# Entry
Amino acid sequence: MQELPIVYCRGYAGPTSQIDSTVNDPFYGFNEGATHTRVNGDGDPMFYQFEGPLLRLLGERAYQVLVRGSQKELLATAADGSLPQKSIWIHRFYDEAATTYAAPAPRSGNLFDRAITWTEDLVREHAQAQGFDIEQAARELYDLVLMVREKTGAPKVFLVAHSMGGLVARCMMQKVCEEDGRIPAKELVAKFCTYATPHGGIVFTGALLNWLMETFGPAGSDIFSPPKMYGYLTPGKKFGDRPIGVAWDPRVIPPSVFDVDDVFCIIGTDQNDFTLAKLGVGPRSDGLVLIENAYVKGAHRAFVYKSHSGPYGEVNSEEGYQNLSRFLFGHWSVQVELSNLPPASVVAAQPDVAWQADLQLAIRGLSVLITEQKAVHYNPVQLNSEIAQHAPGSPGEDSVDAPIPLVGTFLFSKEPPADLPPTQVTPGVGDAPSPAVAAPTAASAPASAPAPAREGWWHRFVDSVGGEHEQAAPVDVPLENPLDPTIPAVAAQAVSAVADDLAAGAGADAGAAPAGGAASDYARLSQDLSRYALTLRVYQVITRNGVFDFSSNLEQVGDWQDVLIVDIGRSADGRFGAWTGWNSAVPGAINQLGQMADALALTPDPQDPNVIRAVLDLPPAARALPVFGPAAQLAFTIVNRDAKG
# Structure
């Protein structure tokens, strides 16, 4: 895992008056936090204090913000390689367009001239963005990245951008870097993360609004018109050129320019908490950018119930930060897709039935969801489209309604990360950890010599996932056969203990911690196992002649729903692996079982030693649905991101 310099590009400010306000912020909004969240993600407001991504990076990842009067001047005067790589740099591209750094223009004594001047100033301040040019901002970003690399000695940088800042970054990567003999983007940028960037442009519900934006571009907004994006995202073209006779999609980053496996898009689905612009954009948006325009095709993504900006914005949210930090610093990626689905003809035989799924991904220890797609947020997974994409010979077109894969995220070797303040879990209280009273120290365990370096793909994978503290602890595990399907003894004991407690606990206090070994097993295992939960809810929508048919509808009742719980890490007997369980089959409360019972067989990819694969049958109730069929499975792909370099 590399901790490289972070270069941040802010979003669209608006007319000159807003630009003048923007430049007053030393960090262009990357320092903004929030004090509001919504109950259960999308309910009533409640107090939740998020300090902002900048402070969180300083506190959790030990990054530094170096200013000393001017970041630009600091870079210009510093010796090569003298600045820390773990540093944050703000691309202040709006400064040159601000009027606050210039002396006031002299005023004529003529009253009529003053009225004319006042009118011109009013138009300039509230309807124009004079001095801002997106391609100039992209060229300045290129110069900044080169300077940061040179002064920190870092091989590459992380680019993080909000809204229009993502288009500035893409202009640099796709056009500036490809012209005049400059260094290609893939040699400058390690990872590229965007919040709420209109990769496919901004499209309003009314044709008149789209025409006004494209034709007149008030306050420079014509850069968001999809046809005009062609000019600043294509080498050799100029702003205003159109993709006439060219099959061009603004959401595509050419593979020759940058690997989309290193791109992550955070997509907001809360249009209700944004400004009046939401009235012109409508649902299936964050209030300004439509969901289908907020991603790069083929890139990683997460859906969060946050708006484009403001008190409930994506950048200043816990959800946004958790996804950002995992993408930048996560050791490995996990992607899940549906496998062995029935042929497309099965669902095509029922053209009036559309199968949809809601999904949520949660991590133990976090108060927020990593990603969620729901019908109530206008973005469920369209299973009919999933089946069509998986059909033999299909192009497998990526979309937000039927993503490839179904869901994916980036994970630390231990959740919450081992290098953050320690936590301990109190069984019987809930599945969220509480701050530890006293963290264990190295002195509390007998000293042991460091484990010798181990050879073989499996050993390297276990070591890379386990972290340094796990590499230093020798474990006598027969790794020659890593696909051991047996249930660890402690897990079997925990299952038995929970069952015994349930049988003997009639009349006992329901809130008390269970007697026996289950509670202690949970407390011990939770220190070494990371727990993830994937919630799936499947239902059908029936229409007749284009109208919803409610004759057999059971409102808010799904045809199948369950939660897949996955534990990853080392069991109490030192065995590394993954264990799963469907919530419907777990006896009692989830947090009373320290480890799921079913071992997940992890199979190495014969073509790539850093890729592990696994499959898991859907429960019988799910496989009875025609949309899944009797052979349906979840297929997991686990990639060691550290090995990518």
Q: What stands out?
A: The radius of gyration is 27 Å. The longest strand covers residues 529-544.
